[in-house]
C-alpha cells in the first residue's frame, strides 16, 4: 500500500477488527499506538539519513538520488512491522533501527525499479516525480542497485552475533529473489492483458510485495530469537500474520488504484486498468475485494492472538491498515 498519506488509528477501524482494539490497549505502560509508530519511524529515518551520507555525493548525483528515493516520504510500514515483531522478541531497539533501515532501503530499491518505463512506468511516487523522471533512467537503475547493496552492507555491519547477521542477510535476500519480489514482478509483467484466475493474482502479490512484508516481520524476531524447534510456534504465527497482512495491503492498493485520487494515492491512479493488468479488484469487484482485505486483516489478528499481549504493536498496525481502508475505500 504505497500511498501518500499515513493512516491513523480511529474508532471506525477498530470496530471492524473486533477484538484487536481491546488487545491493543491491554498492556500497561506501552506508548500509545501513534506515538510509538511516529517515534520508531523517526529513529529509522535518522539511521537512513546517517547511512546514506550526503557528504559522499562525489562527482555524480547517485547519492543524492538514493536519498531522494529513500528519505522523501513513506509510512515506513515495513520498518514498523520489524520494530513491532522485535518488541515481541525483546530485540534491542538499536538493532531494530538498523534492520528497519536496511528493509526500507530494499523497499525503496523495489519501488524505484518498479516505476521504471520498462516495468510499471509511473511518473509519481509519494506525490513526487519518480526517480527516473527527476534524475534520468540510468541513474534510477543505479539507485536501485546501490540501495540493495547498502541494505546488505547495513545488515552485515551490525553489532550482532555472526549467526544473527547471516540469518538476516539470508532472509532479506530471499525476499527479493526469484522466489520473492523479482519473481513477483516478472509474473506481474507476464499477466498484462490476460484473463487469469484469482489464485494467480494472489500468488503474484505474495511474491511481489508480500515477501518483503514477511521478511520484515521475521527479521524483527530473528535479531534475537533463532528459528528452531523451540520457537516453531512463534514463527508459524508470525508467518501467518505477515502472509495475511501483506496480501491485505496489496488488495487495498488494488482498490485504491480504482477509487482514490493522486493526492491520496501518492502516485498515478487508474494505471492498472490502463495497462490492462488483472488485479484482485478487477477480478472480484470492489466490494468483494474490500471484504477480502477486511477478512485478511481479521485473520492476521487471530493468528497472533495466542501469543498474548506482547503482540500489541503488531495488532496496532492491523488497526491502522483497517482504519485506512475505512477512510479511503468506504462501503458503497
Which descriptor suits the 3D outline? Answer: globular
What portion of residues is helical? 55-70%
Number of strands: 2
Structural class: mainly alpha
**Residues in β-strands, percent:** under 5%
What low-confidence regions span 5 or more consecutive residues with pLDDT below 50? 1-29
Distance from N terminus to C terminus (CA atoms, Å) equals: 21 Å
Spatial ordering of strands, largest sheet: 1-2
How large is the radius of gyration? Answer: 19 Å
Written overview of the protein:
By secondary structure, the chain is an all-alpha fold. Helices cover 68% and strands 1% of the residues. Strands 1-2 form a two-stranded antiparallel ribbon. A hairpin with a 2-residue loop joins strand 1 and strand 2. Helix 4 packs across helix 8. The chain is globular and about 50 Å long. The two termini are 21 Å apart. Residues 1-29 have low confidence and may be disordered.
Q: Topology, pairings included?
A:
Elements: H1 11-17, H2 20-24, H3 33-51, H4 62-71, H5 77-88, H6 93-114, E1 124-125, E2 128-129, H7 131-135, H8 137-156, H9 162-175, H10 181-190, H11 198-208, H12 210-222, H13 232-259, H14 262-265, H15 271-274, H16 280-284, H17 286-304, H18 312-328
Antiparallel strand pairs: 1-2
Helix pairs in contact: 1-18, 3-6, 4-8, 5-6, 5-12, 5-18, 6-8, 6-12, 9-12, 10-11, 12-13, 13-17, 13-18, 17-18
Amino acid at each position: 500500500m504505497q500511498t501518500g498519506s499515513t493512516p491513523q488509528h480511529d474508532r471506525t477501524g477498530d470496530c471492524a477488527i473486533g477484538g484487536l482494539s481491546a488487545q491493543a490497549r491491554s498492556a500497561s505502560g506501552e506508548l500509545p499506538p501513534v506515538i510509538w509508530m511516529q517515534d520508531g519511524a523517526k529513529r529509522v529515518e535518522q539511521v537512513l539519513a546517517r547511512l546514506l551520507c550526503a557528504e559522499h555525493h562525489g562527482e555524480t548525483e547517485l547519492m543524492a538520488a538514493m536519498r531522494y528515493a529513500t528519505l522523501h516520504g513513506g509510512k515506513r510500514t515495513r520498518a514498523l512491522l520489524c520494530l513491532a515483531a522485535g518488541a515481541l522478541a525483546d530485540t534491542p531497539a538499536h538493532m531494530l533501527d538498523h534492520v528497519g533501515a536496511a528493509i526500507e532501503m530494499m523497499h525503496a530499491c523495489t519501488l524505484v525499479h518498479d516505476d521504471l518505463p520498462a516495468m510499471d512506468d509511473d511518473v509519481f511516487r509519494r506525490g513526487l516525480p519518480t526517480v527516473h523522471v527527476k534524475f534520468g533512467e540510468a541513474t534510477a537503475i543505479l539507485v536501485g542497485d546501490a540501495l540493495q547493496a547498502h541494505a546488505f552492507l547495513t545488515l552485515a555491519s551490525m553489532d550482532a552475533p555472526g549467526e544473527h547477521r547471516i540469518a538476516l542477510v539470508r532472509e532479506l535476500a530471499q525476499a527479493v529473489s526469484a522466489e520473492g519480489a523479482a519473481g513477483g514482478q516478472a509474473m506481474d509483467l507476464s499477466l498484462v492483458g490476460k484473463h487469469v484466475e484469482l489464485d494467480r493474482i494472489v500468488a503474484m502479490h505474495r511474491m511481489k510485495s508480500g515477501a518483503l512484508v514477511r521478511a520484515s516481520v521475521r527479521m524483527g524476531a530473528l535479531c534475537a530469537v533463532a528459528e528452531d524447534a523451540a520457537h516453531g510456534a512463534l514463527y508459524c504465527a508470525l508467518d501467518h500474520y505477515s502472509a495475511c497482512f501483506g496480501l491485505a495491503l496489496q488488495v487495498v492498493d488494488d482498490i485504491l488504484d480504482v477509487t482514490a485520487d493522486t493526492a491520496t494515492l501518492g502516485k498515478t491512479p487508474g494505471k492498472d486498468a490502463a495497462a490492462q493488468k488483472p488485479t484482485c479488484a478487477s477480478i472480484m469487484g470492489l466490494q468483494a475485494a474490500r471484504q477480502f482485505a477486511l477478512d485478511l486483516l481479521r485473520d492476521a489478528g487471530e493468528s497472533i492472538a495466542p501469543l498474548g499481549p506482547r503482540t500489541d504493536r503488531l495488532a496496532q498496525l492491523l488497526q491502522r491498515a483497517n482504519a485506512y481502508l475505512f477512510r479511503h475505500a468506504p462501503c458503497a
